[in-house]
């Protein structure tokens, strides 16, 4: 037999689909199982490479050719034999149907009269059967063909259904009764291999309740002309006339219903009692088995030859208990079983449209229709919820096309701001699955939280057909960061220069090359020289975004509400009388109510707590005295919970440059101080900057003439900080007079 070579092993061929959609909705990798190409996978005739009619379905396959069925212009069925040797196509009948014989015997008929021709012998007639005349005492139905043997179900006048095997020896009809069961029986020859075949049968026994069915499966040999090894069990309906199966030298399997009303494929390896079961869900509850090749079963819900909508053919390794299904063809409609154990499948994938041969060595296009299918998306895998908390972890997205010769352009849009990311996806090499790994950036900075839409457009590179589009949406959500002004989860550091300009540095949401780095600097205001102190205080007005408070020279405290887009609303006066305070610090929840609070030290060294209210008109409750003796410190910074005690903490630097840690009790008071270390006098400002390093703990930024440093919190009370270098404010140690 002359076949087109697969040119690759089965696993390697399927690897063109790389990571594909499993039937359970997860992503699985195609198993890398080596398979040796069969000797039969040799070159096919070039004349047969592109002569398959578009509407042709495959019926049967032998060693010398294959049979197809199609409708002519009048709607009459036309059967055609395609020879491998010279590529010739011969019409062998009209108005009749063909049967899959797993051989070169061409079996055709009209349901009553059945003819057999041997195509290996030039199409010589072998036999003709008038089934009705062979069984005049009952109604008959052809239920299967194996080589040149027919299997007929006969309903007798005494309410028995019989299964008969018919053949002709030297022109004489030979009939053998294989089974006889009470009424309501159904028989079906579902699969064969060589001379062996599998029969399914079911019957409603008189002693079984009306909703119970006994079913059987049996394996036998046409040479013995008897059914052996009937096996069965009672239960709800296990199979019907659409049930399918597969039989090879190594496997026997079939699709059947389960007790709970589902559907599964069961396969038993020859010589063992072990049964592999594959539950079928969703659309696959109508699945049929195309066949088993080697240790791989192929199955799915057939479409039609002319359809461009997917009816995929799936495959699964039967020897691997943990194996998951993967897609072989984007669409399949009919299957024929060749004597060498290979399958001929009518369908299409990225390689083309036509007849595919599946062997233990590969999947290859045997005969093409020449039809060029319009590009379409057959699958999309974009997560509905995107987690950008994990530093530097790309977000995988993928789209599968009906064919790979196209370019795919992707647009991600942040709904609230309209900001977009556009990208042309790299072409697959090889295959038709396009992938994109989103790095979590939008317009060069960490992407903001909220709703996103995505749209992928595929444009064919061969100019045939127009673009295809597919779209969807997803959500980005992160933990709140008290020092985040544009709702992208990353820290924003605010700095004022000598001219009164206010600048916002939006840090990346994760370290870059091990360092905290600014993604972009933006001027967000002018005239800020009127303020004596500026402090980032987190969300104090219920807007879910970070805010600022500023103390002017007249002792008035002003609130600048964060709008969530990196800008600030016009200021609102909180109140007067704040001029007596030497220091303000905020942005940390000190009493465990979920709201940011404010601390202030007066000229007498008393520390006062202003609890956050969440109100935009009155963001702070009346002050509460924390304690005295705080006048020894020239810098007090609320850092958040840096030592793991469950509440916001405080660090304070004394005149000698020693930094002290005050652990928060969670009620607005603090534990006795713990010495952190000396040398902190080199910095002009210490800023509690939220979670800079994206490890779930708030960090500290120190700014001074020598530049800036990030002090990553460790969660330890004895060594609470680990210093890291940063590119933030590099060579700008004297440019800013206020950092918050």
List the helices and strands and how they pair.
Elements: H1 10-14, E1 19-21, E2 27-29, E3 57-61, E4 65-71, E5 77-83, E6 89-94, E7 97-99, E8 105-109, E9 113-118, E10 124-130, H2 131-134, E11 139-146, E12 149-155, E13 160-169, E14 172-182, E15 186-193, E16 196-203, E17 213-221, E18 231-235, E19 245-247, E20 251-257, E21 263-269, E22 275-280, E23 288-293, E24 296-300, E25 313-317, E26 326-329, E27 331-337, E28 343-349, E29 352-359, E30 362-368, E31 377-381, E32 385-387, E33 395-401, E34 406-414, E35 420-424, E36 433-438, E37 441-442, E38 445-446, E39 450-460, E40 468-477, E41 492-497, E42 502-507, E43 518-525, E44 531-538, E45 547-552, E46 557-560, E47 572-575, E48 581-588, E49 597-602, E50 607-610, E51 624-627, E52 633-640, E53 649-654, E54 659-662, E55 674-677, E56 683-688, E57 700-704, E58 707-713, E59 721-724, E60 736-739
Parallel strand pairs: 32-40
Antiparallel strand pairs: 1-2, 3-4, 4-5, 5-6, 7-8, 8-9, 9-10, 11-12, 12-13, 13-14, 15-16, 16-17, 17-18, 19-20, 20-21, 21-22, 23-24, 24-25, 25-26, 27-28, 28-29, 29-30, 31-33, 33-36, 34-35, 34-39, 37-38, 39-40, 41-42, 41-60, 42-43, 44-45, 45-46, 46-47, 48-49, 49-50, 50-51, 52-53, 53-54, 54-55, ...
Write up this protein.
The chain is mainly beta. The protein is 1% helix and 49% strand. The chain is built from two helices and 60 strands. The strands form 16 sheets. It has a five-stranded mixed sheet with strand order 32-40-39-34-35, with no helix packed on it. A hairpin with a 5-residue loop joins strand 5 (77-83) and strand 6 (89-94). It starts with 9 loop residues before the first helix and ends with a strand. Residues 1-49, 207-213 and 233-238 have low confidence and may be disordered.
